[in-house]
Amino acid sequence: MGIYWKLIWAYLKIGIFGFGGGYAMLSLVERIVVSDNAWISDQMFTDIVAISQMTPGPIGINSATYIGYVAPGSYDPALATPGWGVLGSLLATLAVTVPSFLLVLYCSHFIRRHHESGVIKAIFTGLRPVVVGLIASAAIMLMNAANFNPNGVDSQLWTSVGICVAAFCLVYFPIRLGRKTFKIHPILIIIMAGLTGYLLYGI
């Protein structure tokens, strides 16, 4: 049962110190659940991140739910049942959301009263580039073999890089057809990437 106390403590820390949203906290989550405790592997972590991005809801909460479900069974095979997994999901999700909810509730009240304060403005000026750096570190962290070359095949590596670059270009750069300019919706790009992966690796 010690795994549940560890999950609660781990996600309390993530909920309190995970600044900048889900993507910014990914490096902290990876450090705690993969590097420090080895509850899941690098491959499983990247799969969970991918699932968390494709399912509705914030990535930080979704990943807490998934990791809370699989961690008990990874820690102790006797806990590898749906009931124990659901308990882990519930505890991890509550641990990551309750501190954030209370902090945001207090901070919103405090900032509303002191939004003209030079100290508050200076703090946010310092926090903005930190958040950008955390998100950039998460992007670099996910550029690993588990994402781009899990089977150690060079052709798969370059194919994965090509899919990544194509997806980035389709999301970032507008497409011009005649006088009309438009961008492809990210949901459509996710579907296209899934179909491409199936055609390349599943058949």
How are the SSEs placed, and which strands pair?
Layout: H1 2-17, H2 26-36, H3 42-54, H4 59-75, H5 82-114, H6 118-141, H7 145-148, H8 154-172, E1 175-177, E2 180-182, H9 186-202
Antiparallel strand pairs: 1-2
**Kindly state the mean pLDDT as a whole number?**
84
Distance between the termini: 42 Å
So how many helices?
9
Largest sheet: 2 strands, antiparallel
What is the ordering of alpha helices and beta strands? HHHHHHHHEEH
By secondary-structure content and strand pairing, the structural class works out as: mainly alpha
Parts with pLDDT < 50 across at least 5 consecutive residues:
none
Shape: globular
Total number of beta strands: 2
The helicity comes to over 70%
Rg result: 20 Å
Describe this structure in words.
- With 203 residues, this protein is an all-alpha fold.
- It is 76% helix and 3% strand.
- It contains 9 helices and 2 strands.
- A two-stranded antiparallel sheet has the order 1-2.
- Strand 1 and strand 2 form a beta hairpin.
- 21% of the residues are buried.
- The model has no long low-confidence stretch (mean pLDDT 84).
Quick rundown:
This protein has nine helices and two strands; from the N terminus they run H-H-H-H-H-H-H-H-E-E-H. With 203 residues, the protein is mainly α.
Highlighted features:
203 residues; two-stranded antiparallel sheet; globular
